[in-house]
Amino acid sequence: MEQIETLSSIEGRRxxxxxxxxxxxxxQMSNLTILSLTWRICTTEREIxxxxxxxxxxxxxxxxxxxTALWMEEIVNRFYFSTINSFVYLGAAILxxxxxxxxxxxxxxxxxxxxxxxxxxxxxxFMFIVMLFTPSEDALPINQTEDESEKELLVEIGEIxxxxxxxxxKLENLGESIKSLLIQQNEILSSLRESNENIRQIISPNPKxxxxxxxxxxxxxxxxxxxxxxxxxxxxxxxxxxEIAVRRELEKFFANMINSKNAK
Length: 264
Known about the structure:
Layout: E1 2-4, H1 10-26, H2 31-43, E2 56-58, H3 63-104, H4 110-132, H5 146-203, H6 207-263
Parallel strand pairs: 1-2
Helix pairs in contact: 1-2, 2-3, 3-4
């Protein structure tokens, strides 16, 4: 069985925290029972195992005054401060309602108003006492022990590292996707350039074709000139043949006339 010197030490305060968690959430005890048991543990009890699963023996109980002060700090103030604060607000609300009704009606006597004032004063006094025993946060990290804090810190660091690795992996995948998109874009741009070049060649004539067409036009002009010369030559030949035929006819005519005269 584990032994501790006193409950006012760091280990004792952590033990009280674990005891409260067990009684409240595992055994589901009422608040009054929890307050009674924890006060008894803080003041007089040595064998903690009689009330909880904690196998711990307290060597030096704190007694009534020191135990009650520790109980106020570690149990009442830590776990019931909001409840006490709500009762203070409730007393203030009741007092305001009583005073308001007493001002405009005679149904509320002065005795009831005085009782309301006394109740609110008691609540404020109780709040003062509770706040007087406010525990030091440096004495006990109430939400977690140092080991649990380190473990949770390691878990958080691991989760952050995992998220970071996932983000890096996603960024790498995104980079690869961007590279593939750039390659596809370059291919598309190359295809567009080739298409534009083909369209330009289709729209604008080929220089070689233009040269061939000019040579063809020149050949046609030369052919036309040759045809004109042939036509001129043919016309001259026709004129010469006509002249020769006319001369022959004239010669025949004059020859016949001469022959006819000689015959006479």
